[in-house]
Structures are given as C-alpha cells and as structure tokens.
Write a structure and sequence with these properties.
Blueprint lengths: L4 H18 L2 H13 L4 H23 L2 H27 L3 E3 L5 E3 L1 E2 L3 E3 L2 E7 L6 H6 L1 H7 L4 E5 L7 E5 L20 E7 L4 E5 L4 E4 L6 H11 L1 H6 L2 E7 L15 E3 L2 H22 L14 E7 L2 H4 L5 H17 L5 E7 L15 E4 L5 H8 L20 E5 L6 E5 L4 H10 L27 H6 L1
Parallel strand pairs: 10-14, 10-15, 11-12, 11-13, 13-14
Antiparallel strand pairs: 1-2, 3-5, 4-5, 5-7, 6-7, 8-9, 8-17, 15-16, 16-17
Helix pairs in contact: 1-4, 2-3, 9-11
Amino acid sequence: MGWSWRLERAYWAGEIPRLWRRGWWMLLLIFILAMFSVVPFIGQLVAWLCVGMAGVVVLRRILARDLDGVLHRRWQEQMGKWIFSTWPGLARNLRLEVRDLKGNPLVSGAGHPQWDGWTCVLPIAMPPGLAREDLVAATGRIAQAFNAVRVAVVGERLDSLALRIDYVDVLAHPFVFPLGGTWDGKSVLMGFAHGGDDWRLPIGPHTLVAGASGSGKASLVWGLLLGLVQPIHSGLVEVWGVDRKGGMELAMGRGLLTRFADDAQRSVALLEDAVAQMQTRARQLAGVTRQHVASADSPAVIVLIDELAALTSYETDRDLLRRANAAIATLASQGRAVGFVLFACLQDPRKETLPARGLFTQTVGLRLRDRLETAMVLGGGAVAAGALCHEIPASTPGVAYVLPEIGPPVRVRAAFAEDEQITEASRTYAAPNPRPVEVLEKQNDRPRRPRGSRTKSEGEES
C-alpha cells in the first residue's frame, strides 16, 4: 500500500492519543527545553539538537513503519468493539435466549473478541436450555449481520463455545504442494484446514470420498498418492489402483501403483486377490500381534478405487457385481488390523449404490447436491454440526468437510496436483515391485440362459 495523506492522517489519529497516554513525561522534557532556550548560545544549541533528534526519530518512524499493519490493527480494534456491542441485540433477534422462572430473558452473552489475522474468535456463553445446535443453526444469519465471509462454531461443550468469524476465506484459492514431502507413518499431508493449519488425512481408517462431478475428487486421489511417494518408493506401502473410467485418472501415475486394473474382470480379480492376501496375513499374525506394522517384507496395502459405484452398482454382469460387493465388504470389515486399507471415491452416496457404506469409518464430503446427500456421507447430525457440503460453490473444487473417527466435521481444501507433478512422481518414485493382475478364465459346463427360458426339448417334454 503506497503513502497517502488519508493513510497518514488515519495513522496519527490513533498514534497521537497513544503517545499522550504513554508519554506524559514529554511535557516535562518540553518544559526543560524551553528553559534551556533562554540561555544564550549553549542552551539554544542543546534545544535544537534535542528537537533535531526527535525529528529524525519521527521521520524514521513515518518512512519505515508498516502502514498496512497499523491500519489492520486499528480495524481489528474497531471491529472487535462493534461486534461485542452488537451481539446482545443480535442474539435477542435470533432468539438465542431463554426465560427464567420469573419470566426474565436470559440472552446468550459474548466475551472479549480475539483476533488471528482476518479471523475473529468470539467466546459465547449459552444460557441453560439452549444447545450448541441452536448456535450452529444461526451461523448463516450471524455471518450476514457481521458482514463476514462465513461463521463457524468452535468447541463442543456449552461452557467453551466460540464463534469463528472469518472476513477472509483462507480456502478460497487453489494451491499446489511441493513434491516429496515427509510421511510420519500415520497420516498424509493433503492440504489446509479451515483455520490455515495443515490438514493431514489419517491412513488406517477406510476412507470414502463422495462428491458431485467436478467437485475435486481427483485432488484427494492425487493428494494421497503424492503424499505417499516416499513409502511407495521404499516398499513400505503398496497402492493397488482400480480405475473403471478406462484409466483416464490413474494411468498418468501408473508407476506409483503396484497393481492396476481398468476393466471389470481385472478389477474384481484385484479385489479378490487383496482379500486372499489379507486373510493369509491374518493367519500369520494370529497369536503374534493384533496390529500390523508396515515393513518392506510386509507392506501396508492401500486399495485405491476411483468411481466405486461402477463396481458396486453399475456393473451389468451380476456375477462380477456380487463378487465385487462381497470383496469390498470383506476388506472393509477385516482389513484394517492387518494393513489392508480401502480408499474409494464415488459420486452417488446412496445405500443402493454402495451397500457397504457403513463400513467406511472416515468420510470426506466434497460438493454434494442437497442436505440429504450430506447426511448420507457424513451422518445425520453433520448438517447440524456445521457441515454444509451442499453449499460448497462449484468454483472451489477440493473444498470438503471431513468427518474423522472422533470429533465434529472439519472444513478443508485439498491441494491441486499438476500433470507435471504426477508424471515426475511416477518416474522418480516408481513402485519397486509392480505386478500385473491375472484373470483366471472359468470354464462353464453349459452356457447360461436367461431366467425363465427353456430349450426346445424341455418344452416338448412338458
């Protein structure tokens, strides 16, 4: 921000009262200088030197200070006072009040606002009789009243609730992460959370990612793969990829995948092979340990499925459909303890589309069509808890609400993966032991006939 007289005037309007409060001693200095000035030559010289030094200090401060920071702090002070003074009337208008036994109104109170950049955290004291859900339901109207981008409720207990009032959305713009980040063995750095903190997705729980077309599912897929490049390259983690869109998504990073399938038969064979190896490992670990630890000889296996519904609902071959659903249910119910994890994406979260939906304990909701789909993905209380997947704008792909195994939903945004990053990762961090998926042809004794049909001989006999 450049210098202007308006900014200068705004700065000194707040600076002079502050100096007056803290610098009363300057009156004494001015008085002493005035007394020195009556002394010929030496007194005037001392007075002019003192005035010159003070002028240099003031000029230095004017030229070197950060006007943006000063004005921002001034804005925070004014907005904080306005929010604090406005809250009682706003809470009354929003009916965030109850009445005691005498009929007197008890209104939700507010504490002293605290600022973190462009975010104001306003402590809220809810009177007995109101719930956290009452405050969550009013966040949209509170945001409009305070001219904020969005408002969220922080905290779970009534005695520790606060409103997070954002005037700038840190998740509004896309970003790219550098390739080859460190892996802590438990989670993957995927992007940023609502408050600007890193968002790390735990690896272990079976994860379901649901979102409409164009909502940013690819950012989640590649965020997982690019975050695991080092353990993939070292052999600690194997990723088995299934892409029923003909390989349009995962084929670019084929080098990162230990196994890969892009058609129905190979996809089902890959899932059934995962079940077989999972059960073999379970027998080996039985009586030895209850939790698998990844190693080069016994790596963790992540079965990554893009467009899961193509296997569980849209497949026209009934036998393949049945086998795929059975394998997914078995993996989701038995695989976690022995190091076999599912990470699946789909557009339609209905139970008819994914029968084993309840076995995914970690869910990510991108942009969805309505409240009903949000409840399907994140649970019945998700909307009341502040997860509004159906209100995510189409202009922010990658923004989502994550429902962890413990705790309320968290608003996040996944990093965008560029094609150059994907091809470089596939070339630099390729999986050490890639293996093809083999399909065993089953010989049938007699060809299948449609249900209810009879051969000519059968008809004659009847």
